[in-house]
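User: Design a sequence. Structure:
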């Protein structure tokens, strides 16, 4: 299988067709070998329009959803990012290529270990992406303190309601991508704060992805 051709087809025939036109983002998707992040048994499906199982009921999101996610938060070179749900580390690498820094947290130690290995390849060292990435094992619903607020928050698993602490980790001018609801009716949303005001909500698309592990369906944040 010609993986380079498959990567080209993924970007041009899948992601771009989902109204993802940000050229800097598309360049990153063209450059990063997604097959290096897929579980070995699914390597040949790395560029297919489907979720790939990672274990523990979690998945790599489909490429088209990853593209919409990344475009929606409009990553800038000065942005600090919190990624909730490291998974394979693929999205972590994409974020690091577009932003100033990313703290990525996952509840599963083996996901953190695997992501670290996936991110330690020569091309990432050459691009100094590893210098922009911090991986941390933690349960975001239990005593997790990121130590700061962030310009962008990316949540790769679904929640039934927007957790209050996630909102508290947003800076006064921040964007958050989050998937809210219960299967099979979930909505990808963009939450945006401006000048410290209450956040606005923009519905992006309907989807269905696994819930974040230990999601206890906290009450929606109230201002």
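Assistant: Done.
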């Amino acid at each position: 299988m010609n993986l380079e051709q498959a990567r080209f087809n993924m970007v041009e025939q899948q992601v771009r067709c989902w109204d993802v036109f940000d050229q800097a983002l598309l360049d990153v998707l063209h450059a990063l070998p997604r097959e290096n992040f897929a579980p070995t048994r699914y390597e040949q499906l790395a560029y297919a329009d489907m979720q790939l199982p990672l274990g523990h009921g979690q998945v790599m999101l489909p490429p088209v959803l990853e593209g919409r996610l990344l475009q929606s938060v409009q990553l800038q070179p000065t942005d600090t990012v919190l990624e909730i749900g490291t998974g394979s580390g693929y999205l972590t690498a994409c974020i690091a290529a577009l932003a100033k820094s990313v703290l990525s947290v996952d509840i599963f130690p083996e996901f953190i270990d695997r992501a670290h290995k996936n991110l330690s390849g020569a091309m990432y060292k050459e691009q100094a992406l590893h210098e922009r990435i911090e991986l941390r094992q933690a349960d975001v619903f239990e005593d997790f303190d990121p130590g700061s607020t962030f310009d962008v928050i990316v949540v790769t698993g679904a929640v039934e309601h927007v957790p209050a602490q996630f909102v508290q980790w947003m800076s006064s001018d921040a964007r958050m991508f989050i998937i809210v609801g219960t299967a099979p009716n979930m909505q990808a949303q963009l939450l945006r704060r401006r000048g410290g005001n209450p956040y606005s909500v923009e519905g992006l698309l309907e989807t269905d992805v696994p819930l974040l592990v230990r999601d206890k369906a906290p009450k929606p944040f109230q201002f």
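The two ends are 53 Å apart (CA to CA). Helices lie at 3-15, 23-31, 63-73, 90-98, 109-118, 122-126, 164-168.
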